[in-house]
């Protein structure tokens, strides 16, 4: 077969050492372990501590692990894409700094912002670059330091999010493995329900915006939940239907880890056996762009060459979608 498909050929990840447990959150806000566990499935999350350490720090660590494991020469990487909602700074893309730091001296780089669907959209972009035949190695990193934009006095948001990063390498495949299909959606209606009001061009930072705590994430959880349950299940069902996949031929569901109940609802619509639904939300919470690559890294040892993976995500904006990918290697 001469057609080029875009396969994931290596993964790497990084999570910070500091563990923020439900018990610690109980000391910060009016909440409890039982509520958090039953409503979200989260037990703990990782938080990046340290002076002036931003998202790039975690991106570099994840990329370095991938480089070490795969033996890829960073100078051969053509592009470095970083999906993030928490860039190091508003101007000067995080990806550009990361590329230089990891020795990807011949790469171009840019950031992708699509909230919790950022990594999924990044998979679409990275795959398209490979399939075009113009590039041979595209490094895609999903990373977020959510703790930098979370209000730890707001129990509606601070229990959900954590920090983390993961990286994957896309390369051409000539056996039909890798990226197969995508169904990506967005709807601006979502902007009212999940947002940071200030710090952008519409409402620049001022003394008032800081005093009013407008630089933190606001989420109308109940509304986002409703859209997420329907949206993620709809796109996952659609991608199965149009690729003639059944509950038996799908091997793994890799869903954005925002809330265990949303993942379960998606899996139920797909009629998937529980054993095929990958979950690590209990360890990391919602790491936004980090969740899908962290899942791949945690469960890489289970994937077999040719396995059918369905990715699904839903996030702010709203943005959502599903990707069908055939895994391309057996872990050594
Ligand atoms: O990743 C990007 C997309 N984001 C998502 O997918 C997140 C979607 N939303 C959610 O996951 C859920 O809506 C939350 C986990 C955020 C909230 O769960 P919920 O079941 O929707 O709870 P709720 O907001 O409807 O609140 C139920 C009750 C309320 O009390 P009353 O009004 O019933 O007395 C809240 O005040 O729970 C209360 N509550 C809490 N109680 C203890 C809200 N947060 C907490 C808390 N601890 N942390």
Textual characterization of the structure:
The protein is an alpha/beta fold and 332 residues long. The chain has 2 domains: 5-176, Peroxisomal Thiolase, Chain A, domain 1 (3-Layer(aba) Sandwich), CATH 3.40.47; 180-326, 3-Layer(aba) Sandwich (Peroxisomal Thiolase, Chain A, domain 1), CATH 3.40.47.10. It is built from 11 helices and 13 strands. A 5-stranded mixed beta sheet has the order 1-7-6-4-5, with helices on both faces. Oxa(dethia)-CoA binds at residues 31, 35, 39-40, 116, 155-156, 159-160, 221-222, 224-225, 228, 258-259, 262, 286, 314-316.
Q: Biggest β-sheet, characterized?
A: 5 strands, mixed
CATH superfamily (homologous) name of the largest domain: Thiolase/Chalcone synthase
Q: Element order, helices and strands?
A: EEHHEHEHEHEHEEEHEHEHHHEE
Quick one: how many beta strands?
13
Total helical elements: 11
Report the structural category: alpha/beta
Q: Which residues form runs of ≥5 with pLDDT under 50?
A: none
> Cofactors and ligands present?
oxa(dethia)-CoA
**Helix share bin:** 25-40%
Q: Strand order of the main beta sheet, please?
A: 1-7-6-4-5
Mean pLDDT: 97
CATH topology name of the largest domain: Peroxisomal Thiolase, Chain A, domain 1
- Tally of domains: 2
User: What's the assembly state of these chains?
Assistant: single chain
Task: Quickly describe the structure.
By secondary structure, this protein is an alpha/beta fold.
Secondary structure blueprint with pairings:
Elements: E1 5-14, E2 18-21, H1 22-28, H2 33-40, E3 44-47, H3 55-70, E4 79-83, H4 94-101, E5 108-112, H5 118-131, E6 138-145, H6 155-158, E7 163-173, E8 178-186, E9 194-195, H7 207-211, E10 218-219, H8 221-242, E11 252-255, H9 260-269, H10 281-284, H11 291-299, E12 308-315, E13 319-326
Parallel strand pairs: 4-5, 4-6, 11-12
Antiparallel strand pairs: 1-7, 2-3, 6-7, 8-13, 9-10, 12-13
Helix pairs in contact: 3-4, 8-9
The structure holds oxa(dethia)-CoA.
